[in-house]
Amino acid sequence: MSYFKVENQIFKVHRHFLARDSIYFQELFAGPLGDFGTSECEAIPLEGIGITEFECLLDFFYNGMYRQQTFSLSQWITLLSVSTRLSFDLLRAHAIQSIEDSPTTLDPIDKLVLATNCKIPEWLAPAYVALCQRPNCLEEWEAEKIGLKKTVQIARAREAFRDANYRSRTPSPMFWGRPAQLSPVQPMVNYQAARAARIVDEVFFP
């Protein structure tokens, strides 16, 4: 057992799960701090980790592996964030899959922030496409979350998407399916999604 200091709170935790699944803790225990943690006064500090995050991490390892279905989307997001920073690769992959499989849809702005902070490149394009097609423009608080550069790029993509829709109201025949398979609205939806994806590629991934 080892003592860890997270913010101003002391945790007494068995090293087994930490050393087994995390490169971060493997290196920590092998380094100079590895000899500490035997008492509260020598608790190993975990900088940059919040109490709620560490509690959620411990809850997963001590209980969550047996009742994962009870974890909420917000808990999986917390686990994704902390597992990324503490190098729990298997947990990180599991959190990503659980967020993708969640019945609750993640807001495109939140998904974009997560993709950037947690280095999930496959989430970027779908988030940009969703924001490109969204009827309403970015709110001020959303712009603050993603930064000036991304806000300008999204505005440029949205403008290009709307200009393209204005110039061409009729979808290309190549996107039309057989009448028995698609409703009259579906071909236009498919065409606009493909158009938005093309514009996103041009603006964000030239």
Automatic annotation (TrEMBL):
Pfam families membership: BTB
Q: Where is the BTB domain?
A: 1-70
Gene3D superfamilies in the cross-refs:
Potassium Channel Kv1.1, Chain A
**What CDD domains does the entry give?**
BTB_POZ_ZBTB_KLHL-like
Name assigned to this protein: BTB domain-containing protein
To which species is this protein native? Mycena albidolilacea
